[in-house]
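Extended Data, panel c. Modelled sequence:
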Amino acid sequence: MSHLSSPPPKHKGEHKGHGLPRGSERCSSSRDKDRSVTVSSSGPMPAGGKGSRTNCSPSTPQKVPNRLINEKSPYLLQHAYNPVDWYPWGPEAFDKARKENKPIFLSVGYSTCHWCHMMEEESFQNEEIGRLLSEDFVSVKVDREERPDVDKVYMTFIQATSSGGGWPMNVWLTPNLQPFVGGTYFPLEDGLTRVGFRTVLLRIREQWKQNKNTLLENSQRVTAALLARSEISMGDRQLPPSGATMNSRCFQQLDESYDEEYGGFAEAPKFPTPVILSFLFSYWLSHRLTQDGSRAQQMALHTLKMMANGGIRDHVGQGFHRYSTDRQWHIPHFEKMLYDQAQLAVAYSQAFQISGDEFYSDVARGILQYVARNLSHRSGGFCSAEDADSPPERGMQPKEGAFYVWTVKEVQQLLSEPVPGATEPLTSGQLLMKHYGLTEAGNISPSQDPKGELHGRNVLTVRYSLELTAARFGLDVEAVRTLLNTGLEKLFQARKHRPRPHLDSKMLASWNGLMVSGFAVTGAVLGLERLINYATNGAKFLKRHMFDVASGRLMRTCYAGSGGTVEHSNPPCWGFLEDYAFVVRGLLDLYEASQESSWLEWALRLQDAQDRLFWDSQGGGYFCSEAELGAGLPLRLKDDQDGAEPSANSVSAHNLLRLHGFTGHKDWMDKCVSLLTAFSERLRRVPVALPEMVRALSAHQQTLKQIVICGDPQAKDTKALLQCVHSIYIPNKVLILANGDPSSFLSRQLPFLSTLRRLEDRATAYVCENQACSVPITEPCELRKLLHQ
């Protein structure tokens, strides 16, 4: 293996990027911040010389479309006018490679990926590069959000043979789909420390002609090594490791990397990683009388507060950007991803449950307000992402953050009215600029703006508490709050006139499942029925547009069509493990929020389908893809990292525990044990890589609470008991409404429910553990005491 250059390691969750604004419809991801090139190969590559390089000047894009014009993916359509003979992933491309004995050039990205667009503009729109790719390679474009299985397989190769990974991901394959060279973003030309894309193409072309057999042998050897390295199986183990031990080790690893001043768990870039915050809350609950428990709570709450005050949060339009480029959460990478909004809404709702501080509930509401306004489709579904780049003005080239940043002059013009009662002459604009740290020179350092696109501009980030800002100008705190909110609303209205970032209007089952959870959990915690209605509409969308009744399978994707319609690819893109796992979680959360048993029934059916399609009956755990769908890929993987999104196996472990609590079906508990056992080695080695699975392991080895409310779902006393449960942070529980009907779905699953009675015809709660139930409780305050024990 040789490395032509080696950048710093990248965060595995660094997961989506910018896109050029190619559509205005509203219904969005993480860029690879590293600008250097990673090239890895399974065999030696000769060093190239500058003498072989000629100048490739970009030309205007070819007007005749390539075959990607027939695709639905926004990302593939962005490449439909490249002068490259692109193929979508499929047998047509593979047959051509075998017939013509050519290597496959696989390029993977997504529609809001900044460096994907950079490479397109520099290389894929270049006529000479187009001829090289079309004559000497079979070029394949893949939207990683459509085909996460393809992405995971070849990213495993990139990460195993280089110092990092990211997107765009560019890999050269044999006609049998085995990788032999790979990298991330390539500039067009060679630099002092970077190899240009044209040079790489010429070297690989030459090697394929001169040393093809060596490349094939090396690719087979590397593939075999990856297969052995990626195997996750129970082996001879019968039980998973100790939950208490893994819990403690995971906490200690997080504690060592925690940033005391600004929160978070790295220097820079900093990612939200809600799975870590969820783990810390869970750890606090089981250790709340210890110093470590208090420490875990403080780490999570402080991180959430610093994020919400930082520039990673859009203070004008709400929602969170993908990640922060600095330690202070100040300057973000500006794209906004649906999966971040979904998970962070839950994290801030849980922070409110634990702390009672309305700061956190306000942030959660703001996130969902953003999603409802900008990412919701009229079908009830949710679109994927908004880009980081947009034109500063119509007709101009897109620039990063243009939609979100402000100059002092703009703010002064919009907020010029004087503030009465201040101790010095003050406008509302000056007040807002002081509070949010805006300066004439701009508050973005040149090191964070290498292209100089943000010079003189500012990202809003809270610099002072309301109390300090009020004291600085001799004002009342509530007056300052009102003035700032009014100012932000004026900025919001002014921002509407700017060209919007590109919207990725693709709708993914997995991320929609996460968003159903986000609305359902937050709506239940805050007692807001309108939020639960969004979750219900999201679930209806999934059942109507992304579920095939005949086969019982989920589809992976659908697309926003014209006039609010929903379109599908033909043939459909079937769901992956994460689609089933995240949708099942969403449906379980929606049942607990709405008490509509139909959602629970569908969750059970989808879990049965997941078990049929993905379960590894020999090794335990779930494969990421169906065997048939991934035919031809050199690896069939089980995802083993909780990153920007939780691993589908981690979520499935929780789902299986909850489904066992709702139904008593022993098979699901057995599967949960087998899954956790299969991941034993990974859990023991690096528990911090799987904090969501560590939570599931702890939950399995503790006692799950079955909280049963007997009553009329529409009655006030029933709602009061339900709201009492929702207001308390209890992650290891199922909430069941028993309406007294022995023929109901849940009564058929759990016969003991028919033995529980209302006390004096009032709504009555029972807390059941280990097949024993508490005394009947009719008062919310008494239920609260019991649940806090």
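Residues 139 and 599 are 43 Å apart (CA to CA). This feature is highlighted in the accompanying rendering.
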